[in-house]
């Protein structure tokens, strides 16, 4: 600390994002009663700054403004300054992002909000530059203007803030007009997506282009259910475009945040755990649906990246890797032809042709690796055997990766978030059983055990963990829903009853803490959460699925397993409540739409009776989980002893002739039991392997 001129209260925090600002000359406070009380006591407006560790423009604003002593002096003189990591406090981020969007028509990070000591916002925006530019006022001018308005036009600010609060509360607390989910609604949602589709490069909309994995989940389900070949083409073109573009790390695996252009070439270079966990599921399902090895490769490379770069030895997954290294965005990931020649020698020219490496460069004079030509095309042009070209590519990627490992790596945000870990848990568990990867199953088990051990206290979940201890922030709806979602998948990957029982207990706790009959849905914060400006309720799927949509998915599956009318009614109520929005604004409701596909299906109830580790049961599991069968629940009961799971699906289900036995049922009515894989495949309606 003696090496720093300034040290503020953020030095005692664990969030890497907050710690990045601990030596600013700004007198930063973390969110809490100390800061709020100071604002009330001194009658100062609050300057709330929200961002996250991997946010490039958050770093820019810090360097330009928060490290500037003159600007810091203005901030300290006129405001109580609060820093929030949006990943730790999505409740605060959601509330004030809604306010900024209402005031300005857009949002983003860094987010800057000015509010009264009581937390009522009256002005806000995102990035403010140090000088007037791009029709954006300088941050210094904004500070002086707000300070003057607070001193001389306080009543006007208060009136505007009260009106804004009324609008936000009405939007959050109003029960939307009920619709009805139906196949026609799903047809309309698909039509909206089709209208947004980019037929040239794949994906939806124009630059910047985001991966939108939940929309892709729905698109695949729609394609399979309706046999719409165009929907499947849209799905596959998008997956190919992303994985062959610069948005995918061609050497180390894993996806960057998004593409700044329409063709998936130049990414925003940070890597987020949630993006990669969600995209793993999409690529895995693509492999299950098509059998195309390319999708399996991307799935495994991405999961291997997570284990290599984002895995705590005790079992949790870290949050993000930064976009910047050595002060430059993307420096870790880009190449020059000279570097290729140095590392690959005689292979460099062909490798450069395949991965678009030129003297001119495709990114600020450097090169982002992307698949510009396929090995088959290069083989045809050069006359080399295709296998030789593929060997060259594999060898080159390995050598370049090893060379790159000697560079300074981007910083890593090592906080562990319950909800994001729930997404990764599901990804590893599903891949384990679908791909026959015991190593992924071990990772999933260790992750679930870590979360239950470290992020649960007195029966309630907590939000964050870092440096050996959990934070004090209570978990949000998304934490409960996504963790339960992951536990359900882990049960299917292991048939170990404790994971299903934990998922059910977590779901029951979620209903008690977050459900509200008056809105026919869930709030994001628990009923006993600290009182905020409003009680947040995020209903749409954004970069991550909303807690509401994941809760619906979990409830629908548990409703079948435990024949629970309460689970089913709550899930359908949320879907009906969202029906009109799902139809009109499909791109914001991908996880809901996938859940609606499940709700409108007649899911298969598959019960296995046998010892889980036997070859016969493992063959049944492989038959069930290798193909794409999204509308199912799967349970296993050992042939002897009392069932640890109390489910009506087990009633009158026993082994036949002492053999491992499978029952395939729908609406609790079963076909004849089978004891061989061929019979099971026939009842599931799948062809020969």
- Give the overall silhouette: globular
Largest sheet descriptor: 5 strands, mixed
Poorly predicted residue ranges: none
Number of domains: 4
CATH topology of the largest domain: Glycosyltransferase
Tell me the fraction of residues in β-strands, as a range.
5-15%
> How far apart lie the N and C ends?
63 Å
Level of helix content? Answer: 40-55%
Helix segment tally: 25
Number of strands: 23
Strand order, main sheet: write it out: 1-3-2-4-5
Task: Report on the architecture of this protein.
The protein has 689 residues and is α+β, with helices and mostly antiparallel strands. The protein folds into four domains: 9-173, Glutaredoxin, CATH 3.40.30.10; 183-325 and 413-600, Glycosyltransferase; 331-409, no CATH class; 604-684. A hairpin with a 2-residue loop joins strand 10 (324-325) and strand 11. Helix 4 (69-78) packs parallel to helix 6 (139-152) and helix 13 (337-344) crosses helix 14 (348-355). The model has no long low-confidence stretch (mean pLDDT 94).
List the helices and strands and how they pair.
Layout: H1 16-19, E1 28-30, H2 33-42, E2 46-51, H3 56-66, H4 69-78, E3 80-85, H5 90-104, E4 111-115, E5 121-125, H6 139-152, H7 154-173, H8 183-196, H9 213-226, H10 229-244, E6 258-259, E7 267-268, E8 271-272, H11 273-290, H12 293-309, E9 320-321, E10 324-325, E11 328-329, H13 337-344, H14 348-355, H15 375-382, H16 386-404, E12 412-413, E13 416-417, H17 418-435, H18 438-454, E14 456-457, E15 460-461, E16 464-466, E17 469-470, H19 477-494, H20 497-514, E18 515-516, E19 521-522, H21 547-562, H22 565-584, H23 590-600, E20 604-609, H24 615-625, E21 632-637, E22 661-666, E23 669-670, H25 677-684
Parallel strand pairs: 1-3, 2-3, 20-21
Antiparallel strand pairs: 2-4, 4-5, 6-7, 8-9, 9-12, 10-11, 13-16, 14-15, 16-17, 18-19, 20-22, 22-23
Helix pairs in contact: 4-6, 8-22, 9-10, 9-11, 9-23, 11-12, 11-17, 12-17, 13-14, 14-16, 15-16, 17-18, 17-19, 18-19, 19-20, 19-21, 21-22, 21-23, 22-23, 24-25
